[in-house]
Amino acid sequence: MNIFINGESVSLLVSEANVQQALEDFLSEDQQQTSFAVALNQEFVGKSQYQTTAVNKGDSIDILFPIQGG
Q: Looking at domain 2-64, which CATH architecture does it have?
C-alpha cells in the first residue's frame, strides 16, 4: 500500500495499516523515542489513537518534530 509521509511516497508492506504501523516502518528507533506530533490528512491524531486510526492507500501523514531555538 502506498501512502505519503512528510511528502515522501512510502510503500507499506501490508494491505491494511494503522498510524502506529506506518510510523514504525518510517521512523528510526531513535526518532520513535522523541516527541513529535502526527497529522493524518491534515487532521491531528493523538498518540492514544495511533493503533486505532486506519491508514488507507494514498493517505498523507505529516510528522512534526519540535524545533528548539532562541
A: Roll (3.10)
